[in-house]
Amino acid sequence: MSPSEYRELVEFLTGKFAEIEGQFVRSNGQFVQIDGRFAQIDGHFVQIDGRFAQIDGHFAQIDGQFVQIDGRFTQIDGKVTQIDGQFARIDRRFDDLTLQIDRRFSLLDRRLEAFQAEVGERFREVFGHFDDIYRRLERLEQEYYAISQQLRRIEAALTDESGRRGILDRDLATLKELVALLQARIGDIERRLGG
């Protein structure tokens, strides 16, 4: 290689190296821009991290509130359990009261049935007594009618015949006895009806 060729080669290579170096400088500038952008992105990530930290703080507060709410729900569950226990006791008392009331009503029903049977029996007895009294009154009425007819005949005979006066006196005495008997029976029946 001749010195001129060598110089040309060196110039050529120097030009090429200068171009390459220019490209490296441009690339380096682009890398600096890219680094700046990455720095901006890093800044954005720092801001986002800050926001996430704030959000994490908010979530921590919300978690605290949820813990408080869970505590309140636990208290409410305890109170509901107590209320359930009270309702269970009330249900048992209600069942006991219902059984007692059923027993008392059954007892009252039996007593009422026995009372109705006794009252029915007594009414049958009273009706029987009334039937007897009505039959006796009917007989007394018939006897009274017969006596009144006999008295009329006696009065008629007295007006017609004075000779029969002795007979009439005896018949009158008999009638008086019968009337006294009837009045005694009527008094007895009235006492029974009044008593």
Oligomeric status of the shown chains? single chain
Average predicted local confidence, pLDDT: 85
Unreliable residue stretches: none
**Proportion of beta-strand residues:** under 5%
Biggest sheet character = none
Number of helices: 2
Counted beta strands: 0
Shape, per Cα inertia axes: rod-shaped
Radius of gyration: 68 Å
Structural class: mainly alpha
**What is the element string, with H for helices and E for strands?**
HH
- Classify the helix fraction into a percent range: over 70%
> How many angstroms does the end-to-end distance come to?
173 Å
What is the total domain count? Answer: 1
Can you offer a commentary on this structure?
This protein is mainly alpha-helical and 195 residues long. The chain has one domain. It is built from 2 helices and no strands. Helix 1 (3-160) runs antiparallel to helix 2. The chain is rod-shaped and about 220 Å long.
Layout of helices and strands:
Layout: H1 3-160, H2 165-194
